[in-house]
Write a structure and sequence with these properties.
Distance between the termini: 48 Å
Helix content: 25-40%
Oligomer: single chain
Largest sheet: 7 strands, mixed
Shape: globular
Radius of gyration: 24 Å
Number of helices: 13
CATH topology of the largest domain: Aspartate Aminotransferase, domain 2
Length: 417
């Protein structure tokens, strides 16, 4: 397979080449003004991203991991608190919880959306928690207070937030959205009878601008969105060593600021994000058409009626993931796995005491998922070839295997000789 015929999993070159002059202008502005940390470029991006997300505040920070950490701390999560999330996500979700002083505890995912299953959350709160004498919700597993929920909007699709928010209200819990893969994704609230953007539904939300995201920087970057003025003000101090003004430290903070150059780059690219998201949805629809036109054993992404996903990833399920990925690689087609090992089974979390079988849906999904090429500039011709190679592999896999000949009886062998 020649390089010209190969199909990358992700194309980070084309959009940057198309925007090269605008992006170089950002760098020149920084050089001519010496505005490298904070300043107008950061403030302008924060304002624009808040408008895009339909929130009052956006606070730019150094990464998506810091965004979640700062959102949790500023919202009131403290040392020893249990924060409930899912095992099917990137480890940054639980790193943010742990670094805020919290203890992650897990509930299983919905097999259709791969996001937090509200029914499993309800089972956890009703059956795996109790109340202490003061009325606090206590985890039976760890004997620690449960204070927050972090639903993850995975692969560019929102979790089913109405029942999650209702449970949070019922049990007095914070909700912090992990929207690191969901820039512009929307959720239809049946309760409010309107669409809501990812990042507007919890006390705060974390976004990542890692280069491969739908809105990606040319390096590390993140942001928190919130409608809470106090949360916003606290995060602005947390990201800058706890300073309320220069050399006046109201609390102990972090070095979590966003470089001005990255903010300027993100501001340029933000103007194109709605178009890129629409193109991703078109690419997803084309994959769906290609794959449903022929009977096959590949399970396609499920997008409920209450979801407008922005397809950060296009993830399918197949029984022989390794075989499919090897076949596509030989055909020059890039793939990925997001994610192969659930967090509760990661070596880093051995001390949590979880075991295989604790979250069966997540474990089954993680053994079968594979991410196919997905980016706005993907062409119909490229997608057709991806589908063709997937079908070719499935035909090979489903083909009857030759039956080994029965060994010839000794007498017959001697007669034939």
């Amino acid at each position: 397979m020649t390089v010209s015929n190969s199909i990358p999993f992700l194309d980070l070159i084309t959009p940057h080449v198309e925007l090269e002059q605008e992006l170089m202008g950002v760098f020149r502005q920084a050089l001519h003004t010496a505005g490298f940390i904070g300043g107008p470029m950061v403030e302008n991006f924060e304002k624009a991203f808040a408008e895009f997300c339909d929130t009052k505040h956006s606070i730019a920070v150094s990464s998506g991991t810091d965004a979640l950490l700062f959102a949790l701390v500023a919202s009131g999560v403290s040392d020893g608190d249990v924060v409930v999330t899912v095992p099917h996500t990137f480890i940054a979700t639980t790193e943010g919880i742990s670094q805020a002083g919290g203890l992650p505890e897990f509930v299983d995912i919905d097999e259709g959306t791969y996001n937090m299953d509200p029914k499993k959350l309800k089972e956890y709160l009703e059956g795996k928690c109790t109340r202490d004498q003061s009325g606090r919700l206590i985890s039976k597993r760890s004997s620690r207070p449960v204070t927050a929920i972090v639903p993850v909007h995975l692969y560019g699709q929102c979790a089913d937030m109405d029942p999650i928010l209702e449970l949070a209200e019922q049990y007095g819990l914070l909700v912090i959205e992990d929207a690191c893969q969901a820039h512009g994704a929307e959720y239809f609230s049946r309760k409010l009878n309107r669409w809501r953007k990812a990042g507007t539904m919890g006390r705060a939300a974390a976004f990542s601008f890692y280069p491969g995201k739908n809105l990606g920087a040319c390096g590390e970057a993140g942001a928190v969105t919130t409608n809470d003025q106090d949360v916003s003000a606290t995060i602005k101090m947390l990201r800058d060593h706890g300073q309320s003004k220069k050399y006046y430290h109201d609390l102990e903070g972090y070095n979590g600021r966003l470089d001005a150059i990255q903010a300027g780059i993100l501001h340029v690219k933000l103007a194109h994000l709605a178009k890129w998201n629409a193109q991703r949805r078109e690419r997803a629809a084309e994959y769906n058409r290609l794959f449903t036109s022929t009977r096959n054993s590949t399970l396609l992404p499920h997008e409920p009626s209450w979801s407008r996903a922005i397809y950060h990833l296009y993830v399918v399920r197949t029984q022989d993931r390794e075989g499919l990925m090897a076949h596509l690689k030989a055909a020059g087609i890039g793939t990925g796995i997001h994610y192969p090992i659930p967090l509760h089974l990661q070596k880093a979390y051995d001390s949590f005491g979880y075991a295989p079988g604790d979250f069966p849906v997540c474990e089954a999904v993680s053994a079968q998922i594979v991410s196919l090429p997905m980016f706005p500039q993907l062409t119909n011709e490229q997608q057709a070839r991806v589908a063709e190679e997937v079908f070719r592999f499935l035909q090979i896999a489903d083909a009857p295997k030759p039956v080994a000949a029965e060994p010839m009886p000794l007498a017959a062998a001697e007669h034939s000789a």
